[in-house]
Amino acid sequence: MKPFIVALAAVAALCAGSAARAADIQHAFLVQNSGWMEPFYVDPASQLKPLVGAVAQAASRPSEKVFTLAFSQSNGKNQSPLLLGENQGGAGAGAGVNARLATLGLARKGEGAALADTDFQEAVTRTITGPFQSRPGIVWIFTNNKNSPNNDQQTAERNRDFYRLLHLEPSIRKTVVFPLKMPVQGKRYQARGLMVYALAYGQPAADALDRILAEGRLKQVLTRAPARLKPVDADAVRIVPRAVGNSGAVKTSLGADGRTVVLDVDAAALVPRITLDASLQNLFYPYVIERAEVKAALGAGGRRTALEVSPATVSGLQPAASQAVRVRFDLPVEQIPSAWSAQAIAAMGKQVLLPMRAEIGLAGQRLVLADSFADELRELFPGDPISEVFTPPETVRASTARVPLLVRVQYPLLPVFVIVGAVLALLGGLLALGLVSRRSTRYPVKVDGVARQVLLKPFQQLALLDADGNPAGIVKRGLGRPAVLKVEDGHTIALG
To answer: What does pTM read for this prediction?
Structure first.
């Protein structure tokens, strides 16, 4: 295993730095043709080659590059893996792979008649450093799980080396497998099953493999769910909401993506405390959650607050099975805008969206392979320690699932009406004030005992003169009657 890791380490940094924005990914379809595969090539009922072509057509896109290779073990003139051809993917990928596999037979050692041995690590290493040119890609392997480099009869131990590699090699970011029932009978050997591996080399390839599985592109060919090998703890559990208790003002639903939990809140009857009845589903296929502690937190803005989950532990939860849980948490009221806030007023009685995130984690978890799955593996691959590859590493003791939350706050129109009414009243008052300010009123005044009339507008002041034309004083009017503002020495001013 060491040469394989050394070879990959030289290019791991390149894979990690590859641009994940590229939607396309290259594919290599490796078909085992060593001696152990004899019944798959001899039995006329064998579906090996049609299966490879169908998977290639389903997995690849028109703009993606597809390599078709046969692998056994290099010996003399027999080279492994042997590149049979390459082409762009899409609708022609399956047909192209089928055509290249049509004449493929069993490989032989050197010049002799002995059938070739098998070396999984050599096949994967040389595919990555050869056709892939050390760039990210998905390696699809079709094998009966017999790994026997240099005619090593300890195939079980050689398989253990390969299985450890699948778990521990960091540049292989994701691995899923499809154990298939395919009974075949040859002249020398017989087989009951075929294994299809999908190894994602580099993070862009892992992202592409996730898309392929999420889009269901393989379901018409590989009808069973894939078993995960790596990473075991990604998207391991999920919460499926059932009902919201303690408040008729909060309603729950699932978003269009099937993952986002949507909480519709009536701002006029907001109850901060939420009780959510939900199902905790085990996505650890094919593992049983034998025991784990359930912990959860709510992320809103830059804050994280703990959530109450009951029961606080799960045990004996089978793959795809669910357990009822109750989650209690407080809505971050301080982050929900007031009905009188600018954000709520701008919404004009519509909804304000507040994205949040719930993190559901399992701590101290213990996973075991489901008995039914282990029995199936023993039936398909008798004598093979394949169930050991599904033993999670000791480091996998915790896992986290992030559940998007969307709080939709419905605001009433009353604040809008109140503010609009206040604005209209203010505008009306200003208009009335403007009209009043244009009107002049006559007021009687006596200057040095001599009566006269003055004409004043609101907020206007007027200088008064005596009989000789000298300044006598100043009067000023506000909104009401005028007042004497100033009286010069030797003069009298009286309003009346």
So the answer is: 0.68
